[in-house]
Amino acid sequence: MGYSNLFYLIKEEFSLDKLVDNALRPLADMLDSIIFYPVKIINYDVPVIVLWLILAASFFTFYFNFLNIRGFGHAIKVVKGDFKGKTSDGEISYFQALMTALSGTIGIGNIGGVAIVISIGGPGAVFWLIVAGLLGMSTKFIECVLGVKYRKINKDGTISGGPMYYLERGLKDVGLGKIGRPLGYFYAFAIVIGCLGTGNMFQANQAFQQFVFVTGSLDSFFVDKGWLFGIIIAFGVGSVIIGGLKRIARITSTMVPFMAIVYLIFALLIIGINVEKIPWALSAIVTEAFAPKAMAGGLIGVIILGFQRAVFSNEAGMGSAAIAHSAVRTDEPIREGFVGLLEPFIDTVIICTITSLVILTTVYEPGMQNLDIQGIELTSQAFASTLSWSVVPLSVIAILFAFSTLISWSYYGLKGWTYLFGENRMAKNIFKIIFCLFTVIGCTIQLESVLKFSDAMVFLIAFPNIVGLYLLAPLVKKELHKYQTKMHSE
Description:
- This protein is mostly helical.
- The chain has a single domain (20-489), classed as Amino acid/polyamine transporter I, CATH 1.20.1740.
- Helices cover 76% and strands 2% of the residues.
- The protein contains 22 helices and 4 strands.
- The protein has helices at residues 3-13, 16-35, 48-63, 67-70, 72-80, 94-103, 108-121, 124-149, 163-173, 177-214, 226-241, 244-273, 278-290, 299-314, 320-325, 333-340, 342-360, 376-386, 391-421, 425-444, 448-460, 462-489, and strands at residues 38-41, 44-47, 152-153, 159-160.
- It has a two-stranded antiparallel ribbon with strand order 1-2. It has a two-stranded antiparallel ribbon with strand order 3-4.
């Protein structure tokens, strides 16, 4: 064997990809099996995490007497700025808090995830996706209220909040302080791991793949230069996050509305051109939701599929959005809860529904099952079938969505990091450097087990978070009653 072949063999066998994958695979598989453990319901397997999140969303919807519907108008008024806080505590406005949190949830999943739902479950799954999105609004409400109520105001005026703090401080208020702090530490650790994988490496990798596609696919100059693209993205991310939450909020409050509006314009244009198919598409969404034609294993299978995609899309129950919402300038925690409930509506009910109509009015045909292509490829095909040139702007939008997700998750991870290591400048800078390095890594190597592990950690945090929400729900209900009494008296 020649030296060159020997060197190649050693490089392949002892590469960073393989070493890390082999080290993490057993733990990643174990966590994955726990989180997605199938629970039998009428002969159907339901992932335990999906059941956990949907039961919580349903409970909070009834517990707060359908506030997700009743409070919608008030939520719009708050975001518009009709109510001004009397306190200077906080770093960002209601609108900026909403956009920062949305940038962490609106992304490639809204474009490609819906296509997967339709390709497997048909139009009926979209109906249950919408229902799950509406229920998730209630979970986001209580998360955001608690995020503001138990936030920490630092010496420099910055804000730290989120599940770490309401698990520690809130559970102490209800006599469970001994378990509150350990749960807070666990949540902080998990959100740091999750942000580096799912919120960073995966997003950077997907952005790179889309960029290669836009610049020529296999003929692209960048096809084997992921490191270069990674450096460029990391520099862009670093230039934003070094300015703290206020700079992140300024960027996301510009990018997110722009991206969402551009995407919706293209999508509505496609739907408008195929307007004659809209009545069938809407009818299919409703009728097949209750009488699916053997897709995804029947009615229960379609319901599960729609609910699963919704909870994966809007992250209601994960608690991550509460980290951004906790920094809002307000003296009323309940008010920010109303802002938070708009997230699943925008993310799931509006954007995912519009995406589904694009697919149903273009490439989808009645009776079509198990499509050969799924994900963002199917959505791209749907756009290209009507406007061939629209695939390029769609890819650019997908890249921008990934970038905005990166910067939002950098903040989530930073707050988990500072909860663990303290609110000092050195600790913050160390995390920011690590985050940017992982952005480059995400574009250059495929670490399947790292992503699987981080993804599992993101979903794992839903378990202690939901427990905390159940225990603290009575406190939020009291706060809500006081707020509504005050509003009626004014």
